[in-house]
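Try this one yourself first.
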C-alpha cells in the first residue's frame, strides 16, 4: 500500500488528496483543519473564492487553471450542497488589452462588455460564466467527502518537514501555504505574505464584478443573499486587525463603480455581516510544484498559489499527482500509472 502524507488542510492540500488514487493511504496533517474556529493562521477560509484567470500566467499555470475550472463547473452541477455555484462574471481591466487576456477564448459565454455596461473611466471589460463558492460551507463539505473515502485528518504543528518522518509515508506533499517560509528545512524566502481585507455584506447583488488596474475593487455576489466587497493586496503585511480607513475606501470604490447596486458610500448604508482579513501565500517567481529528496524523505512541494488557491486547486492537484507518479516509477522501477479513479 502506497502511503502519502500531505502537510496542509487548505484548499491545496485537500484538492491534492482528492486526486490521489483511491487505493493510496492518505493522511492530511495540519495545524488548522476545516471546521475549526476562525483563525488567520491560514488563508483558505477567507477567500472570496471565485474563479478568474490570473494575470501573467505561463502555459503550465494556464492549463492548471482551466483544468480546475472544468472540475469545479462539474461540482456546481452535481453538488449544489457544496456551495459551488455558476455565476455571471464582469471582469474589467484598466491596463491589460484583450490580446493579453490568455483565457479570452476559454470560458463559457465570453463576450466584450459594451460601453454602457462599464463605469465612467473604465476602458475595457469582459463578461463570461464563472464559479464562486463559500469557503465556510465548502471546506467542511470537502473534508467530509474525503473522510468518506478513507482520507485521515490529523492535527499537528511541525517546525520542520523532518518532524513528519515518523509517520512512515512513502511520499510527503508540502502544501502548507505560508508554512514553507518558516519550516526549518525549507525556509523559502521567496514566500511572501500578502494581506487582503474584505467586507461581507447582506445583498442580493447577483454577479461577480471585478476591476483590476489602478485599484483592485470587487463585489462577489455569492448567490446566497451575501456579497463580498473588496479588495486590496498589501505585500509583506500580516497585520490581522481591520484597517478602518481601508474599509471606508472599499465602500467608496464599490459605490463609485457600482452606484446602481450600491447607491451610497456611507458604511452605515450597508448591512455588514463581518469584516474579513486574510493573508495570501504568495511566492516571488510563482508556484513551486516540484519534487525533491529532503533529509531522506521524498517530498513534492505544492505552494505559492497566492490569490489563486481555488483557481488552481484541482489542476494543481493533478500536476502534483504526476510528480508522485514519477517518484513512484523511479523508485519502484515498475511503471504503475496513477489510476483514473480518484476520490472526488
Ligand atoms: C481576501 C482574500 C480573498 C481571496 N480570494 C480568492 C479568490 O477569489 N480565489 C482564489 O482562488 N483564491 C483567493 N484567495 C487566496 C486563497 O485564499 C489562497 O490562495 C488559498 O486559500 C491558499 O490555500 P493553501 O491550501 O495553499 O494554504 P492555506 O489555506 O493557508 O492552508 C495552509 C495549511 O497548512 C497548514 N500549516 C501551515 N504551516 C504549518 C505547520 N508549521 N505545521 C502544521 N500545519 C501547517 C495550515 O494549518 C493549513 O492547514 C483569497 C485570499 C484572501 C486573503
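Now uncover the answer:
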Amino acid at each position: 500500500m502506497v502511503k502519502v502524507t500531505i502537510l496542509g488542510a487548505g484548499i491545496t492540500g485537500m484538492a491534492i488528496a482528492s486526486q490521489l488514487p483511491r487505493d493510496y493511504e492518505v493522511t492530511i496533517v495540519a495545524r488548522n483543519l476545516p471546521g475549526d474556529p476562525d483563525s488567520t493562521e491560514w488563508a483558505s477560509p477567507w477567500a472570496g473564492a471565485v474563479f478568474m484567470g490570473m494575470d501573467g500566467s505561463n502555459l503550465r499555470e494556464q492549463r492548471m487553471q482551466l483544468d480546475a475550472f472544468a472540475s469545479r463547473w462539474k461540482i456546481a452541477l452535481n453538488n449544489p450542497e457544496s456551495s459551488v455555484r455558476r455565476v455571471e462574471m464582469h471582469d474589467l481591466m484598466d491596463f491589460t488589452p484583450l490580446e493579453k487576456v490568455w483565457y479570452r477564448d476559454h470560458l463559457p459565454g465570453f463576450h466584450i462588455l459594451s460601453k454602457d455596461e462599464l463605469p465612467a473611466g473604465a476602458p475595457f471589460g469582459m463578461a463570461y460564466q464563472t464559479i464562486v463558492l463559500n469557503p465556510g460551507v465548502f471546506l467542511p463539505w470537502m473534508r467530509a467527502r474525503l473522510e468518506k473515502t478513507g482520507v485521515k485528518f490529523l492535527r499537528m504543528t511541525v517546525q520542520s518537514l523532518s518532524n513528519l518522518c515518523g509517520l512512515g509515508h512513502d511520499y510527503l506533499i508540502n502544501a502548507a501555504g505560508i508554512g514553507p517560509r518558516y519550516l526549518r528545512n525549507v525556509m523559502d524566502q521567496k514566500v511572501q505574505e500578502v494581506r487582503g481585507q474584505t467586507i461581507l455584506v447582506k445583498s442580493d447583488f447577483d454577479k461577480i464584478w471585478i476591476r483590476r488596474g489602478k485599484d483592485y475593487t470587487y463585489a462577489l455576489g455569492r448567490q446566497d443573499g451575501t456579497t463580498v466587497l473588496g479588495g486590496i493586496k498589501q505585500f509583506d503585511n500580516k497585520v490581522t486587525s481591520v484597517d478602518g480607513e481601508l474599509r471606508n475606501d472599499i465602500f467608496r470604490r464599490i459605490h463609485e463603480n457600482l452606484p446602481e447596486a450600491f447607491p451610497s458610500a456611507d458604511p452605515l448604508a450597508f448591512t455588514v455581516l463581518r469584516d474579513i482579513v486574510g493573508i495570501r501565500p504568495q511566492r516571488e517567481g510563482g508556484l513551486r510544484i516540484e519534487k525533491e529528496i529532503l533529509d531522506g524523505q521524498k517530498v513534492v512541494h505544492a505552494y505559492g498559489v497566492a490569490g489563486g488557491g481555488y483557481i488552481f486547486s484541482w489542476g494543481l492537484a493533478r500536476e502534483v499527482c504526476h510528480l508522485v507518479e514519477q517518484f513512484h516509477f523511479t523508485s519502484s522501477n515498475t511503471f504503475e500509472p496513477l489510476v483514473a479513479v480518484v476520490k472526488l
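Discussion: The longest strand covers residues 191-202. The radius of gyration is 20 Å.
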